[in-house]
What we know:
Elements: H1 13-120, H2 132-156, H3 174-208
Amino acid sequence: MATEPLYQRPINVRGNQMELSHDSFAGQSALSNDFEGKLGDTQVRLAQLEAEREKLERQARECSELNDKKKVFLSSQVEMSEKLSNAVTLIDRELVAIRTELQHLEECRDAFDGNLKKIAKFDPESWSQENVKANLDKAIMIMDNADDQYDQAATYFATMRSGSIFGKSGKKTIHAETGEFLTQLKNGLAFNLPIITLGCVALVIYLLK
C-alpha cells in the first residue's frame, strides 16, 4: 500500500485556530486573573499603608501636643516654684517678725500692767504729813519711769503694725520739745504781761520822783 504524501494530507486550519484561540484565551484569562490579583493585593497594601500613615500622623500630633504641654508645664513649674519659694521665705521672715513683736508686746504689756498697779496704789489723801514728801518723791519717780517706758515702747513699735497702739508718735523730738517750750513761754508772757507792765510803770514813777 502506497503512502499518501504529507502535502496531500488536508490541514484542519479551523481546528488549529480554535485550539490557538482557546490557548490564547486561557493565557489571557490567567494573565488577567494574575493582574487582578496583584492589583487587589496592591490596593489592600495601599489601604494598609494609608492606615499606617494616618496612625503615624495621629501619633505625631499627639507627641507634638504632649511636648507643647510638657513645655508649658516646665515653664509653669519654674515660675510657680520661684513664686512659692519667695512667698515661703517672706512668710518665714514675717512670722519671725510677728513672733518677735508679739514677744516684745507681751513684755511691754507686763511692764505696763505692773506700772498701772503701782500707780493705782497712790493715794495722797491717805499720806500723813510726815511721809507725804517721801511718798510723793517715790510716786513721781515711778510715774517718770512709767512715762519713759511708754515713750520707749512707742518709739520701738512706731514702724510696726502695733505702732497705732501708742498713737502717732513716740518719744518727743527736739523740735516738739522746742515748740512746746515756746508755747509755754508765750503763754507765760501773756499771763504775766499785765504784772510786768505795772511793775515797769511803778519803776518809772519811782525813778521820776
